[in-house]
Amino acid sequence: MNSDDLPFGPDDLERAEQELTEIANRLAERFTGTFTHATVERYVFESYRALAASARLAAFLPALTERFADDRLVALAYVQKPPIRPVPQVLFICDRNAACSQMAAALLGMQARGRVNIRSAGSRPAAELELGVIAAMAEIGADLSAEYPKPLTDEFVAAADIVVTVGCGDACPVLPGKRYLDWTVPDPEGKDMVEVRRIRDELDLLVTDLLTYLPEAADGVPDDPKGTP
User: Fold this and answer.
1) What is the per-residue pLDDT for 7?
2) Which CATH architecture is the domain 9-80 placed in?
3) Hey, what CATH topology would domain 89-213 get?
4) Residue 139: closest CA among 185, 180, 176, 103
């Protein structure tokens, strides 16, 4: 990895490489029999680069990288070897993955109660979530404090049964066999809490309607990363 590719200095890069190698080893063990160590390591380092492009602090990047790489590998495994009893997969996309797509994902999670696998991503991810969004969701019992903006990846789209775009235009790749929905919802960035709550409630209604599009999940059990039933 070249330090010129990252917004941090050589010391941060050297520390990160050691941590990323440890992350790759852990994930390679988790995905034994599904992906080679080389594939896992490539995804880990790619994920680090992708997150580093919009990150403000190097210290949190390794932990976020492990979560992001793991999620990407789970999606890839699902695409390559779908489970016998698949759970519906929904992907929410907005421009920055800092507001609407994060709220929609959390709202669907609250309503679906484990019957759906949910991801969100952004075509141009921000450095962090909007504080007003975190506050508005906390009011209804959804904790987004540990969430982070994620870049849109091909495996996220490929794994999805339904792709919901929230104001990201043509940034989402279009693949056959997917159902695409486009929601016209204002961006909460810079809005006061009254408006953020209104947007949250509008998304909640859309999510309720979305549930009618989803096939029934098999026993409500999330898919295994190796694609087994």
Assistant:
1) 47
2) Orthogonal Bundle (1.10)
3) Rossmann fold (3.40.50)
4) 103
